[in-house]
Amino acid sequence: MMSFKAHYDGSVFVPDEPVNLPLHCPVDVAASAPFEPDGGPGDDEIPPLMRLVQAVAGLPPITDLPPDAAAQHDHYLYGTPKN
Predict the structure, then answer these.
(1) What angle do CA 36, 37, 41 make, to 5 degrees?
(2) How confident is the prediction for the chain on average, in pLDDT?
(3) Which of 35, 49, 57, 65 would be a feasible disulfide site paired with 69, CB 3.0-4.6 Å?
(4) pTM, whole model, 2 decimals?
């Protein structure tokens, strides 16, 4: 079994070091998500905005809002008359 680091360039995985494999050799790929303690920078190295994006991405979607919630947010939040 061989293990090596690689990065994703948007369309393919590119090894970060030379690998000794035959051309067109099938491989199994196991990826660890960025910013994990075992494979990425520590929490202090993650930009705050990226931490916010990761936190929001983990929230469940809100599906029970009224269809006019954005336009009438003051009505739903504070009870003001609808416009």
Answers:
(1) 80
(2) 84
(3) 65
(4) 0.36
Distance CA 49, CA 62 (A): 22
Q: Which of 34, 33, 58 is nearest to 46 (CA)?
A: 34
Distance CA 74, CA 78 (A): 5
* Gap between the Cα atoms of 19 and 1, Å rounded: 12
Cβ atoms within 10 Å of 6's Cβ, excluding its own = 14
Q: Which residue has the higher pLDDT, 43 or 57?
A: 57
Residue 38 has pLDDT above 60, yes or no: no
For 70-83, write each residue's pLDDT tens digit: 999 999 999 999 98
C-alpha–C-alpha distance, residues 75 and 82, integer Å: 6
What are the structure tokens assigned to 62, written together?
A: 């809100």
Report yes or no: 82 and 75 within 8 Å, Cβ to Cβ. yes
